[in-house]
Amino acid sequence: MNDTFLKACRGEKTDYTPIWMMRQAGRYLPEYQKVRGKVTFLELCKNPELCVEVTLQPIDILNMDAAIMFSDILIPMEAMGAPLEFHEGKGPVFPESIRSKADLDRLIVADPYEKTGFVMETIKLLRRELKVPLIGFAGAPFTCATYLIEGGSSKFFWETKKMMFTNPALFHEVMEKITQTTTRYMLAQAEAGAQALQLFDSWAGILAPCDFEEFALPYATRIIADLKKTGVPLIYFANNGATLLDLSVTTDADVIGLDWRINIGEAIRKVGKKAVQGNLDPIALLLPRDELRRRIQQLLKGAEGAFGHIFNLGHGIHQFTPPDQARYAVEYVHELSAR
Ligand code: CP3
Prior knowledge:
This protein is of the alpha/beta class.
């Protein structure tokens, strides 16, 4: 078992800097496309055997130091009773968006075993196959709430902010229900065998720090506190979160995920005694190899003072990334960081 990733999460000495990439199982891999050609995205998410297959692809092909179970952050939202669709080229759609108390009353706090047993099954199957640690995940409540309230992806988050500012009590009720579901969902993942848990707050960066502190952070904080008893490392990733870093570090997360918009050395000074994960611009994988090497050197050097460092991209790998470039980055991080 290669436990380099887990050691880095805990701030223990490692033989080299471990690396994985957010959204590492996905469309940039022809092997993923082949599986996806036979089923819809949601069918894939609900088929444990196929989830295992695509989770393993980046481990085998790119030599990542951690696996992330294949699923989606919106699966537990569907389990709460919100019908979910994925439209080609448009992404997720919730046709029955949550805008009123009556809408919210239609949603339940989902039982993770009853409604998302296929996720726990995927985790159990993966643990038999994997020689690297398995990361489970969920969306942070704020990010999930934006999808439910907007009815899908958004640019200005008008409906989300409208509810926050004109009916804050209802907004907090939405967050409360999502939080309860998410806590139970992540506890179940740890029980099934997930060895680390990441909370993806992909849209936290659209908030002013004061609103993040009032409307989003308390819920992420509570989930992280409730997950502490699992004993597995907890990762909090607030995308576009450089301006929120002082607040994010107040959570009890063991690892703070960093997007690429902040200098890693500067981030480490703010993060202090927690590990950091990141933070290469995903599209920097397109750089010519000598320049890509220089970027990786800079990043590893910048992270030297970290309590622990897990190399990653600053957000998900882009769907048009040549797999060979990602593989090269992994190889070079391993080579250069060997100590
Ligand atoms: O990281 C991994 O390899 C595990 C799998 C994973 C997926 N989604 C698979 C996926 C993870 C961790 C996610 C998380 C997720 N899903 C997030 C948070 C991370 C982030 O990127 O900010 C968010 C916001 C979602 C919601 C979501 N799912 C969107 C907006 C989309 C469409 C995006 C797009 O690129 O079109 C998805 C679909 C999705 N989730 C795909 C994959 C591989 C593409 C679906 C396909 O095969 O057509």
